[in-house]
Amino acid sequence: MSISDKEPMNEQMIVNLYSALRTEINQLHAKITELEMEVSEHSLVIGAIQPLDPSRRCYRMIGGVLVERTIKEVLPAVQRNKDGLEEVISRLYEALERKKKEMQEFEVKHKIKIRRSDVESKDEGAPKEGSAQGVLVGPAGGDRQSS
What is the pTM of this model? Predict the structure, then answer.
């Protein structure tokens, strides 16, 4: 039995519970994104060190301390960490789906309809400014001077 099953609830309680559900969903999205970035970093490291000689020295950060190891020692640990992160992401996706379902049931039960503001609906079709953040493109012409 969840909090939303208790009756009667006033409008403010419904709004607060709905906001809490939305906050939880947003937090799950943020955590999933963060962990997916970590998996990507682990994949890059694995891809970089896998073809190298297993006896070659490498350095690994463990608890804020840089330690010297061999690739043979580090590669399985990095792979285990990546696998563990993928498992956590999978569980978080399951939790996210449960939370979304709970939110939908809450919306139906309390007849909640989301209204978009006029500004949001006008901007929806237009491309978002800054959608290519982090990309720097130089001039297209031959404006470069040879030295």
Answer: 0.69
